[in-house]
Every structure is written in structure tokens, then in C-alpha cells.
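Bumping with the actual sequence this time:
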Amino acid sequence: MSEAKKQVDAATTLDEVNVVAWLQAHPQFLQQHPEVLAEQEISHDSGGAASLIERQVGLLREENRELQSRLDEFVAVARSNEQRVTQLNNLAQALLEACDIGQLMTGLADCVRQQMAVDAVFAGICHTGDIPGDADGAIRPLSGEDACSDAVMEVLRSGQPVCGPLSAAQVQALFEDADPQPASAAMVPLGETQTQGVLVLASTDAEQFTADMGTLFLSLAGDLVTTALRRHAGAAVLP
């Protein structure tokens, strides 16, 4: 045996001796840290037959990994829900602080840009002529025969939020002056008893809003915006 190999073996033996001595001096260590023991593969002398104890321990270890993975998923969902609740609360505060529709839409746009990475906002209400209380023209009247109405027609007909990519025609109708132009959007119905308007939250990120994403948060946000608009424009505008 070479001298270098002897030195390596001696160092390894010394390390093992130190570990054994330390564990003997601290017998409570494995009780206080059972996760260390749980990760060890400890074989049992059972000849050529598979050890039942080893099999049971292996199954328990695998079950523990699966439970830990599920727990991690639950924690991630809980954190996401907490974030959504915070976003809804911030949105409600922004809407309550508005003194008119112009301030309402400005506060709404600022809030969703900060909270949801939204780059552009469009709001339209099915109404002929100017929207009551909207001196700044912050909300687009939808006549039912214009390009904006066509761009949001799916939401007006279904009364449900719609998320996904924007077509070139939708971008042209809703965000003609936006630079850079949005690529995806969440379209949210507005109205208390029937859909009479649409709120569009758009992003330049094509993956920000996808067709398979959940829409509960969007529906709740739409309810808040509907209530705020009814307060300034009148219940007749958004029945």
C-alpha cells in the first residue's frame, strides 16, 4: 500500500472515530434531529432475502417525500392567495379614494400596474353618448357597432372573464396608441345584474394572461370596479 493511500485511510478512520465519539457523547442528537436518521439507508442482515424492515422504511420514506411535496404546494397556494387578498384590498382602497370617474380610472390603472404587472387598461360601458360623471372621457362608450364593441364581444355575450392573447384587431381597437403594444389581456365583465361593460387589463408579456388561468380574483376585482362606477355614474349606467 502506498504511503499516500495509508494517509487517506488514516484520515478517514480518524474522522469516523471522531464522529462515533461525538455521537456517543451526544446521544440526544438523533432524537433532536430525526430527519438525519430518516435519510440514512440502513441495511439489515437477512441473507439473500429482502428485509421487510428495509422495505417498510423505504415505503415510509417515499410517503414522507410525497407528503412534503404536497405540503410545499399547499404553502405556495396559501402565499398566492394571501398576495391576491392584498391586491384586492389595495384596489378597493384606490377605488374608494376617487372623487370622480377620472380619478377612479387613474387610481385603478396605477394600482394594477404596480400589483399585477399590467401595462395598459381599457374600460368600456354599453351606453350611447357620454358616460355620466365622466368629464375626462376615461371610459369608452360602447355602441355595439364599433370596433371596441367587437373586440370585447365575447365577454359581453358570456358575462364571464376571458383571458389570453390579443388579436391584432383587438390591439388596434382597444390600445391603438400603446407603445409597446399589449400581447395578452384579461377581460372582465362589468355590471351588477347584467353585463353592461368590460374592463380590460393588458400586458406586453404574451404569457401574463393565459386561457387556463383562474378567474376568481378577476371576477372579484370586476365587482369592486362595478360598485365604484355605479357610485359615480349612477346605477342606471351599470344595472
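The C-alpha cells above came from a reply further down the thread. The first helix runs from residue 3 to 25.
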